[in-house]
Every structure is written in structure tokens, then in C-alpha cells.
Design a protein that fits this description.
single chain; about 700 residues; alpha/beta; Serine Threonine Protein Phosphatase 5, Tetratricopeptide repeat; Rossmann fold; 3 domains; 7-stranded parallel beta sheet
């Protein structure tokens, strides 16, 4: 029996436990407890040494496989991947039916750059699970999901989709599998995207869709808000906040310098990172102190180096838990914490849920509402969120003259590619859309084919996907009566070269419902006019904001018919296209869209206004009423065809569904589409009360 170890140093803890291990007097339970105690003291190296010592002297123990498993976990924690791989393999040798070892071994192989061997190890597990019970089913689903994730990262989309479909056959409610399965179908242009099958319904899939995939699928801002709310509520949950909603008196001040914290996984060579370089370099250092909290991939590039140099404090929070990251932000005394991720990859939404700063802002990284109780503001502009669209957002809307910054200092390759090198015809009209393929919908593609059909010899220049996706779009073109070779694909390349090739296109054709954002900014920067179709949702209105700010109001269309007509008109009159290009070139140095210093001054004014709200006791409280109801309604709607509805018809549809629901199950009033007058109390016999 070990003595009480509460007062011992880590070295004494280790020595005491190791002596008992050598004497074979340390049970597996005691071993796990002692190793955990060492790990809690940040002594994982000693914990690993303790496991090693115990294994050397207790190799005949019946739980040796479990010890090898924990040993592997600890070795992985200290960065000894080779040691962890060996530990997991030994655990499998000792007990081949201990399935968690297969899962972790595959992940460690993947982290070591052996993705193929990782997939093979998970397939071993999938193919050799014997009996059907809760434990084996869970392991099989986990292995299939890991296979799908790795294949997706390796752009083996069809195989990844199949693995995830198998996992959904077993568990139709596996949210991560649904998210990735839908995303894979979108980037492969497999239409319809949301297609259920015998074991999994369309409603199951829609209930698990990610906010980003939904923005690509449907121009339905109400359902987007409800989906964001549901994700925050069910996935992020309600962690204990570091501070109460009622700020302590010492925070109610007007500091000499407001402390702004930017949280993002994309402060690197990424659309967000490129734009934020110029912002961080231009902030007023006399009145603002700027912090960056990075949670992205472990790789430093030129864009990240610029940001690191520009900010007052750079903090990598990748190695910190949500509690630790929130505590660090609170310790830094951040006044306004800006979420540059939203619901995108590697986001740290749970850090915001802990309320480490008195004010939280949703800006730039995610095109929509967060639907949380802890994001107080969303930054947009009057084009993206008109006043009558505020009902689609839980945050208070703050407006810039134009929502998105642009980096004026981005490097553009001096070498300009020719049309011949890009596989484009020399004299024909080149329509282009260099958005990701996930943004292409059947409706958008049909409009493009109609345009090509009216402009002889014109081509459509798209950013390349996988070879299967490219061929699928060529076949879709043929089905619309357009020769497949009129679809030309631009291979992915380094950003300076990518920017330099933009002028090969004559007119950028935007997508709906998720339009061009940074890609539109790139096109306009390179003097390529952009034609866009205005929708209802945030993602469908960003491009229109850019085009109008750049002075090309004539290229913002309100109906699909006018979009097609305008594209055909411009494709038939090269002189008009040249006039738009000349207008962009002449106004680039003077329009607000490309004036970062003026942009940052406006942004800083918004931060001052937010701080003023706080010290006046007027910090906005997000309104989350009835969002569960709106989500349930949205699940039954024809989301893919929402763009065909006028704004009046769209709102009327939701109002009718709310009334229908209210007649059966009363719905309390909210400030969106269900007002007090619509939800009058009913009498006990089911009729509306009479005043």
C-alpha cells in the first residue's frame, strides 16, 4: 500500500511509485492514479518513465494491454510519436481485441506522416470486429470516421464519402460524420447534395448540417440563424463563464488604450490572414493595444510573420485547453474579443462561451450570425445587413462603410500567364468564377450554361476540383447542351501567381447563395469586373457590397433573369467590359474598398462605440427566443429552392408555418417573424380571446 502522496514533490512521487512497481506492489489502478498525479503536475515525462518501469517488472499482468495504451497516450503527449506507435503495437500484440489501441495507433501513424498506414490500421479494425454490441459498434463508427477524415484531407473525396456513409448507416445521428459527408458532396458537385437513403433520412442530414455547408446550400437566413443557435447550444453547451454578465465596477472605465484581442486559426496565408495583415499594421497604437490569439495549423508563413510583427502580443493557444485559453485572455485584460473564425475549421467558440472579455464580436471569419448568448455584436455594412434584415441575427449589428478589409501589400507575381498557358481561347469571352466548387449549386450552374448558350464561343473558367468533380461538371454542361470543353479548369497555385492570372478573365460570375468574398475582392483588385446576384443571407450579399463600394452598382442584379441578361449583354459587347475594367483601375486608389487606413479608423470607431455601450450599461443581450421552433420549421422546407422566393413570399412562408404550429402548440412572441399580435392568448375552448 502506498503512503499518502499529497505533500510529496514530483520526484518523490515518481521514486515512491517506481519502487513499488519494481517490487511488484503497484496495482494497475494505483499505477494509473500515480501517473495521472504526475501528469496533473506537468510531469508527463516522469509519468511515461513510470509506465516504462512498471511494464519492465510486471509484464505478466492481465491488464498489460491497458497499461500499454495509457503509456502510448502519455508518450504522444510528450511528442514521442515513435515510442507511442510501439506502445500501441505492443498493446495490440498482447490483446488483439482491445480496439481503442487500433484507433490511437492509426491517429499516431497519421500524425507521423503515414496516412496510408493509418487508414490500413483502421480498416483492420473495421473488418475484424467480431460480435455486434455497443462497444464494437462505437469502435467501428470511430474508425470509419477517422478513415473518412484522412481520405478527405488527402482529396480522395469519393472514398471518404463512402466511409462516412458506412458510419452513418450505423449511427444516422453522428454529427461529425454528417458535417463531413455533406461537405464532401458539395465540393464534388454531387447534386442533390442532401439526398437521404434507406437508413438515413434527408431530415437526419439537415439536422446535422454545418453552418458553412448550409450557407452554400440555401438562401435562408432564418434557418441559418436557428442552425447556428442549435449548434452552440448542443455542441458548445454552457461552460461556466469566467465573468458574470454584470461587469464589475473596475471594468466600467474609459481606458487610455482599448485592448483588442483577435482570435483566429487563420492568421496565416489564408483569406482572413491576408486581409488582417494590413489591419493589424494600421491600428492606432496610441489608443489601442492589439493582441492575436492563434489556434491554427503549426506552420509559420510570410503572412503570419507580418501579423506577429504588427501586433503588440502574439499568443499561440493551440496547446491550451478552453479553460486555460480563456484564463489567459482574461489575464491579458482584453476589453473587446473579436471572433475571426465563427463556425469555421479549428474555431475556439468554447473559449468565447467562457466570457473571458466583457465584449465579444463576430466579424469577418464567418458569414452569418453565431446564435449564441455570448457574442454581443456582429460587424457588417448596410448592403450586407439592411435594417429590415436584423431579425436574422442574434447580435447587435454594427456597420462599416464596407465590411471586409483588403491587404494592399499582397505580393502579385511579375510573371503574367498567357491565355494559351492557362488553356483559354485567345479571342473568346472568358467568364470566370474562381470560387471553391462547394459554392456551385445546380441553379447557379444552370444560369451559367444559359449564358454560354447565348454567347457563342465563350468559355467558363473555374477553379479546379478533383478530376472526378471536373468531369462531373463537364457532363452537367453537356446535359444542358453545352460542349464540355467549354468548361476550363484553373489549377490551384501559389497566391501571387493566382492573383496575377485573374486578368485573363473578362467577367467574374458570382455564385448564389454563397457568393464570392475574398475571391471577389481579388478580382476587383486585379481590375476584373464582377457580376453578382443579390440574395437574402449574409453570404449572398457580401459580393454586392464589394461591387457597389468599388463603384459598379450596375453589376448588382436583383433577379436571376436580370443576372443572365446582363452577363449575355456584357459578353456580347467587349467595349462595355473594357469600360468597367477602366473604371476599376481609375478608382482603385481612391475608393473605400481599398483604403485600409480609412477602413481601420471606422473599425476603431465601432470598438469605441461598443465600449461606450458597456460603460453606459447598454451592452446588448442576444435575443434567442423561439430559435428551436424556427429550426424545426426549417427542417421541413425546400431549402435548395429558397432563392426562387421573393423576400415577401419568404417571410410569409415562415409566418404561415409559425401560425400552423401555434394553432396546435402555442408559440410565444419574439422580435422576428412572430409578434405579440400574432400570438394572442387563446381561451380554454381553443378560440382567440376577445378583448
Amino acid at each position: 500500500m502506498l503512503r499518502d502522496l499529497g505533500s510529496k514533490t514530483p520526484a518523490e512521487l515518481f521514486a515512491d511509485a517506481a519502487n513499488h512497481a519494481v517490487a511488484r506492489q503497484l496495482s494497475v489502478i494505483d499505477l494509473f492514479n500515480r501517473a495521472a498525479a504526475l501528469s496533473s503536475l506537468d510531469q508527463n515525462q516522469l509519468a511515461a518513465e513510470l509506465y516504462k518501469t512498471w511494464i519492465a517488472h510486471n509484464s505478466d499482468d492481465g491488464l498489460l494491454h491497458a497499461v500499454y495504451f495509457n503509456y502510448g497516450v502519455t508518450l504522444g503527449t510528450i511528442g514521442d510519436r515513435a515510442g507511442a506507435i510501439n506502445a500501441y503495437r505492443e498493446g495490440i500484440r498482447v490483446k488483439p481485441d482491445f480496439y481503442p489501441s487500433y484507433i490511437n495507433l492509426g491517429r499516431m501513424l497519421e500524425d507521423s506522416g503515414q496516412a496510408g498506414r493509418a487508414v490500413a490500421k483502421w480498416l483492420d479494425l473495421v473488418n475484424h470486429l467480431p460480435s455486434v454490441n455497443g462497444e464494437t459498434v462505437t469502435h467501428k463508427v470511430t474508425a470509419l470516421h477517422q478513415i473518412g477524415r484522412v481520405l478527405e484531407n488527402g482529396y480522395q473525396d469519393a472514398a471518404a464519402e463512402d466511409a462516412l456513409k458506412q458510419s452513418l448507416d450505423i449511427n444516422p445521428n453522428h454529427s461529425k460524420a454528417i458535417i463531413h459527408w455533406i461537405s464532401l458532396r458539395q465540393r464534388q458537385c454531387k447534386w442533390p447534395v442532401i439526398a437521404g437513403w434507406e437508413r438515413v433520412s434527408r431530415k437526419d442530414l439537415l439536422a446535422g448540417i454545418s453552418s458553412l455547408s448550409l450557407a452554400c446550400l440555401a438562401d435562408d437566413p432564418m434557418f441559418q440563424l436557428a442552425t447556428a443557435y442549435r449548434y452552440a447550444k448542443t455542441t458548445v453547451g454552457m461552460p461556466k463563464p469566467l465573468r458574470s454578465r454584470s461587469e464589475p465596477a473596475e471594468r466600467r472605465r474609459s481606458p487610455h488604450k482599448l485592448r483588442i484581442g483577435y482570435v483566429s486559426s487563420d492568421l496565416r496565408e489564408h483569406a482572413v490572414g491576408f486581409a488582417m495583415t494590413d489591419v493589424t499594421e494600421t491600428h492606432d497604437r496610441e489608443n489601442f493595444k492589439v493582441f492575436a490569439y492563434y489556434c491554427g495549423i503549426n506552420r509559420t508563413d510570410a503572412a503570419q510573420q507580418r501579423i506577429m510583427k504588427a501586433v503588440d502580443c502574439w499568443v499561440d493557444i493551440n496547446g491550451l485547453s478552453d479553460d486555460q485559453a480563456a484564463a489567459r485572455i482574461a489575464a491579458d485584460g482584453i476589453d473587446i474579443l473579436v471572433d475571426l473564425n465563427g463556425y469555421t475549421r479549428d474555431a475556439r467558440t468554447a473559449v468565447f462561451a467562457r466570457r473571458p472579455a466583457p465584449i465579444a464580436v463576430n466579424w469577418f471569419g464567418f458569414p452569418g450570425s453565431m446564435g449564441t448568448p455570448y457574442h454581443h455584436y456582429i460587424i457588417a455594412d448596410s448592403h450586407i445587413i439592411p435594417h429590415d434584415h436584423e431579425i436574422y441575427f442574434s447580435e447587435k449589428v454594427m456597420r462599416l462603410p464596407c465590411y471586409q478589409p483588403v491587404d494592399r501589400k499582397r505580393v502579385i507575381s511579375e510573371r503574367r500567364m498567357s491565355r494559351e498557358e492557362a488553356g483559354l481561347p485567345e479571342d473568346a469571352v472568358v467568364y470566370c468564377c474562381l470560387n471553391g466548387m462547394q459554392k456551385i449549386t445546380p441553379q447557379a450552374f444552370k444560369r451559367w450554361m444559359e449564358i454560354l448558350g447565348h454567347v457563342p464561343d465563350s468559355v467558363l473558367w473555374l477553379l479546379s476540383g478533383t478530376s472526378d468533380a471536373n468531369e462531373r461538371l463537364r457532363e452537367a454542361a453537356a446535359a444542358h447542351g453545352i460542349a464540355g470543353e467549354r468548361i476550363v479548369f484553373a489549377e490551384k497555385m501559389a497566391n501571387p501567381d493566382h492573383l496575377a492570372r485573374y486578368p485573363l478573365g473578362d467577367l467574374f460570375l458570382d455564385t448564389l447563395p454563397y457568393g464570392a468574398h475574398t475571391t471577389a475582392a481579388d478580382a476587383l483588385w486585379m481590375n476584373v469586373p464582377v457580376l453578382t446576384l443579390l440574395g437574402r443571407s449574409f453570404a449572398s450579399r457580401v459580393c454586392a457590397s464589394f461591387v457597389r463600394t468599388a463603384g459598379l452598382d450596375e453589376l448588382v442584379c436583383s433577379t436571376p433573369e436580370s443576372y443572365v441578361e446582363r452577363a449575355v449583354e456584357l459578353g456580347s459587347d467587349r467595349g462595355k467590359l473594357q469600360a468597367f475594367k477602366a473604371k476599376l483601375a481609375a478608382g482603385r486608389d481612391s475608393c473605400f474598398f481599398f483604403d485600409t487606413p480609412r477602413f481601420v479608423r471606422h473599425l476603431e470607431d465601432l470598438y469605441r462605440e461598443m465600449w461606450s455601450d458597456l460603460i453606459r450599461g447598454a451592452l446588448p443581450v442576444p435575443d434567442l427566443r423561439n430559435l428551436d421552433v424556427y429550426h424545426e420549421i426549417g427542417l421541413d422546407l425546400d431549402l435548395e429552392n429558397m432563392e426562387a422566393l421573393s423576400d415577401e413570399a419568404y417571410r410569409g412562408l415562415y409566418e404561415a408555418k409559425l401560425a400552423e404550429r401555434h394553432s396546435v402548440y402555442p408559440v410565444g412572441p419574439d422580435l422576428r417573424l412572430w409578434r405579440e399580435s400574432q400570438s394572442e392568448p387563446v381561451s380554454v375552448i381553443g378560440r382567440r380571446a376577445v378583448a
